[in-house]
Amino acid sequence: MTEHAAPTPLADEQVLDRRNARKRLPAKFSIGIFILCAYVLLGALAPMLLPFDPDQSNILRRLQSPSTTHWLGTDQLGRDFLVRLVVAIRVDLPVAFLAAFFPMVIGTVIGAVAGYFGRLPDMIVSRAADLVQAFPVYVFLLVLVFALGSGATSFIIAATAIAWVGYARLTRGEVMRLRSMEFVAAARVSGLPELRILATHVMPNALPQTLIYFMSDIVLMVLVLSSLSFLGVGIQPPTAEWGRMISEGQPFLHSHWRLAVLPGLMLMIFGIALSLIADGLDDWYRS
Amino acid sequence: MTRILNIENLRVDLAARGKLVSPVGPVDLFLDSGECLGIVGESGSGKSLTLKAILDLLPDGLSRGTGTQQVVEGGILVERAPRDLRGRKISLISQEPGTALDPLMRVGDLIAEIVREHSGCSRAESQSRAVELLRRVGVPDPENRAKFWPHEMSGGLKQRVVISMALACESEILLCDEPTTALDVTIQAQIVDLLRELQRLEGLGILFVTHDLALVRQIANRICVMYAGLIVESGPSAEIFANPKHPYTRALLAALPDIEASTGDLMPIEGTPPGPAEFPPGCRFAPRCPLADGQCLSKRPMLEALGTGVRVACFKSEKGP
């Protein structure tokens, strides 16, 4: 670059900028992360810490009360209840995560293309989304899981086929809003190629919303997974899964309430943790 | 002075049901190197749309109807499509520096990205060039401020960053869409000074759109007055301010408060400007014009040269007081 005669620089006292302190994430976010980490650690270390096989039944020891051997007693098939509660983390967490993750990736890409390019891509995506949303979620999910066969994989596939719509709509709206912002026009004026503008200027600004939605979507997916398992089409026995455990514990609600209530509590606390994370992120992003 | 931009027959169309409505044009414009052309007019006169139409950056629903533009390349004027001009020959500086910078990128990276796009140089080199560009637009301590996020900067500094992004493109023409409206008066003066210095030092041609007559008097060598999507008068700035020919220009200047003449009352212009759907068939100013007669209402006056370098679109201009 050639040497340019520089215009008069501003004197320091004429400059009215300031570097503000980095915004801190709210406490609820930290609490949520703490609980989530506890779940993940428990799930990861469970087989090493607990001496019982979660699937090994022993009719002779069925429905025992909590004792020093079985801290939370045993269930109707004589399996250690604590082990099953904790081992279920290894099923519920990853399955729910993936059932929210794949729709996020697919829906975000689809929504971004629809929102940014508009016209025909937008029309195709919007009509496809209408089509999916025309069915009640649970009915559609049940039909899909039924057709694909029970199990984690088919649940994830079915969830992806339905849940992408939420991400696509969210991203489409965000991208459409951002597309008309001055800085996108500024990037165009600067001669940057369209796809680069979408990738480096539009998407980073749209993603925080998606991430917040993703967090609450995981909660939803855990609940949906449990519901389907409760109804008998999700995770199949003998695998430990909270929804399944609630369903199996239901007949014993009067005599052994812990069998149905504790898995529900595990679900609830997990849901609260992720909601705290999502809410904390949202507050932080908006402030 | 060489001609660096020549725009002919530029028209902006509005997609309306079956009916062609043109909020702007047809408009002809030209710009010489090192010159600042001021486009003035009320809100809705189409001045900003004209600017956006040059780069085909019109908002949804509006489109470029007709128009050609020639830019200078290797000493001769050649015709180029709007998209090929973006960030190469022509850059745009917008009204709102606050939203013109991507909030998720440090300003140095924003500038460096454009430098890389245009020169293909390495990351490290583009960063040092970004710092150099910030220095060129008068940002003090540019090494440090290149690491700032847009929200950490004041409006004036942000506008300087926007200008440095335009310089990063090595454009010869700067389109300024009311670049100082969002800034307070002292900062406004700083930015205007900067633009003038860049115009003088680097030979930039500037197209400056504003509704601020006092500002345009300061910065522009030439002026185009727009009314209802058309240019009604153009010519050297001094000449137009001293001796306005078009009744609209005269009325506009009469409505300007003057700190020296303490005669009290300002002269308002009666009525409101027409919207694009109800442009009158004849002279568009005729319904509000004190001099209008039957000819003005039925026939559209064309821009005609008056000898002093002024061009005016009015049947009555020579007979006026």
Task: Detail the topology: elements first, then pairings.
The complex is a heterodimer of chains A (287) and B (321).
Chain A (H helix, E strand, L loop, with lengths): L26 H23 L31 H7 L1 H29 L1 H15 L3 H12 L3 H28 L2 H8 L4 H38 L10 H8 L8 H29 L1
Helix pairs in contact in A: 1-10, 3-4, 3-6, 3-8, 4-6, 5-6, 6-8, 7-8, 8-9, 8-10, 9-10
Chain B lengths: L2 E13 L4 E13 L3 E5 L6 H8 L7 E12 L2 E4 L2 H4 L4 E4 L13 H13 L3 H14 L5 H4 L9 H14 L4 E5 L7 H18 L2 E6 L2 H7 L2 E6 L2 E7 H6 L4 H8 L39 H5 L5 E2 L5 E2 L9
Parallel strand pairs in B: 3-8, 3-9, 6-7, 7-8
Antiparallel strand pairs in B: 1-2, 1-4, 4-5, 9-10, 10-12, 11-12
In short:
In chain A, 69% of the residues lie in helices and 0% in strands. By secondary structure, chain A is mainly alpha-helical. Chain B starts with a strand and ends in a 9-residue tail after the last strand.
Structural account:
The complex is a heterodimer of chains A (287) and B (321). Chain A has 287 residues and is mainly alpha-helical. Chain A has helices at 27-49, 81-87, 89-117, 119-133, 137-148, 152-179, 182-189, 194-231, 242-249, 258-286. The longest helix of chain A is centred in the C-terminal third of the chain and has 38 residues, at 194-231. Chain A is elongated. In chain B, the strands form 2 sheets. Chain B has an 8-stranded mixed β-sheet, with helices on both faces. The longest helix of chain B has 18 residues, at 185-202. The mean pLDDT of chain B is 83. The chains are: A mainly alpha (287), B alpha/beta (321). Chains A and B meet through helix 7 and helix 8 of A and strand 6, helix 3, helix 4, helix 6 and helix 7 of B.
CATH class term of the largest domain in chain B: Alpha Beta
Unreliable stretches covering 5 or more consecutive residues of chain A = none
What percent of residues of chain B are in strands?
15-25%
User: What best-fitting shape of chain B do the alpha-carbon axes yield?
Assistant: globular
DSSP strand (E) fraction of chain A?
under 5%
**CATH level 1 name of the largest domain in chain A:** Mainly Alpha
**Quick one: which chains have the greatest interface?**
A-B, 35 and 51 residues
Number of helices of chain A: 10
Spatial ordering of strands, largest sheet of chain B? 6-7-8-3-9-10-12-11
> Strand count, sense and closure of the main sheet of chain B?
8 strands, mixed
